[in-house]
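User: Please check token order:
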Amino acid sequence: MSVKVNGDKEILAYIEKKYGTAGRKKMESAAITKGGNVLKNNMYDAFYPYRDTGYTVTDMNLYGPNKKTGSNRAKLNWQGPHQRYKLMHLNEYGHFIRNGEFLSPRQTGLIENTTRASRDSYRKVIKEELEKRV
């Protein structure tokens, strides 16, 4: 049996027709988890040169996928025992120091740039995972 499916929406429509809504959600969640792991690994590689204690990498968590926002998404954050989420915002956008000067750390914009660079590989992994299950 061979099926020709071109886009993501066509793949999801075919899966839903063949396996039902519950099967589609299960396959979609598995694909999003694999794609999230690709992004998480790219973040590990991006933060490697800036490590000091390594807490930034160890506190990185991938949650999800969940449907709270209306679409099925995974969430990458820095909630952990070392409370790196407080520092990540300052490192991503920069901050003012006590004498009033603006400090831009070396890793300013690293999360945004890594996310943007990983976008194509994330979508590729999701599409491959869904096609593999068809």
Q: What stands out?
A: Confidence is low (pLDDT under 50) at residues 1-5.
